[in-house]
Amino acid sequence: MTRAAAFDPVKIGIVSISDRASAGVYEDKGLPALQDWLTRALLNPITFEPRLIPDEQDTISAALIALVDEGCSLVLTTGGTGPTLRDVTPEATLAVAHKQMPGFGEQMRQISLRFVPTAILSRQVAVVRDQSLIINLPGQPKAIAETLEGLKDAAGAQLVPGIFAAVPYCVDLIGGPYLETRDEVCKAFRPKSALRTR
Ligand SMILES: Nc1ncnc2c1ncn2[C@@H]1O[C@H](COP(=O)(O)OP(=O)(O)OP(=O)(O)O)[C@@H](O)[C@H]1O
Ligand SMILES: Nc1nc2c(c(=O)[nH]1)N[C@H]1C(S)=C(S)[C@@H](COP(=O)(O)O)O[C@H]1N2
Q: Residue 6: what pLDDT?
């Protein structure tokens, strides 16, 4: 068996929530940014389930429920986390939550403050629904890598850990596949007792 074949396959939902990108007013950069980063970070074979939808609460909740029901162990959204009247991604996500995971939002705002003072305007949340972890990321395409990967210095040393470091163990705990990362992109952390030996 090749080493690649030993990695668990994973299905990941990626959801870009933008009135203008979904209407074709501008090109969607959210889905490509999510797909690029996840492909770089994960060693597992990934099946992506992409959705590009407007900032409508019921549409967002329905998309999240469908992705979880289709077997996505992880669902990442981008966009609609700010304070404008149309920004309803956190409400749509909380509406389908079985558990809230507040640490992800707290850490994302800490990371983002190192990039922009307006980081505190993002109301992003993370939740568990069934055996899936759903995480909101901000809408600025560059915010995707910033929040997932964190902040590194010029030599590549981690200054602020990205939120993705905690994602593989969280997915373990809710019964999902064993996710493995490329350390140079994101060093995942698991307690020693949870490490799989090869
Ligand atoms: N899917 C996307 N593709 C490209 N750029 C985006 C996308 N989503 C957001 N942006 C950029 O990031 C900014 C902030 O994102 P935000 O989610 O607040 O969008 P918005 O201003 O509510 O507008 P819209 O929902 O129409 O994208 C946008 O104004 C836009 O410049
Ligand atoms: N890492 C990062 N976080 C960020 C930003 C950013 O550029 N980079 N933009 C902020 C801004 S300006 C806003 S209004 C909020 C909400 O963005 P959203 O409505 O696009 O989700 O995210 C914030 N978080």
A: 87
Query: Using CA atoms, how far apart are residues 48 and 39, in angstroms rounded to an integer?
Result: 10
ipTM for the complex shown: 0.95
Ligand 2 centroid to residue 31 C-alpha, Å:
16
Q: What is the pTM of this model?
A: 0.96
Instruction: Kindly give the distance from the C-alpha atom of residue 139 to the centroid of ligand 1, in angstroms, as a whole number.
Output: 5
Residue 75's DSSP bridge partners are: 13, 134
Q: Is 136 in the pocket of ligand 1 (CB under 6 A)?
A: no
Ligand 2 pocket: which residues have CB below 6 Å? Answer: 79-82, 87, 112, 115-116, 118-119, 121-122, 138-140, 143, 146-147
DSSP string over the chain? --TGGGSPPEEEEEEEE-HHHHTTSS---HHHHHHHHHHHHB-S-EEEEEEEE-S-HHHHHHHHHHHHHTT-SEEEEES--SSSTT--HHHHHHTT-SEE-HHHHHHHHHHHHTT-GGGGG----EEEETTEEEEEE-SSHHHHHHHHHEEE-TTS-EEEE-GGGGHHHHHHHTT-----B-TTT------GGGPPP-
Domain 4-194 has CATH 3.40.30.120: no
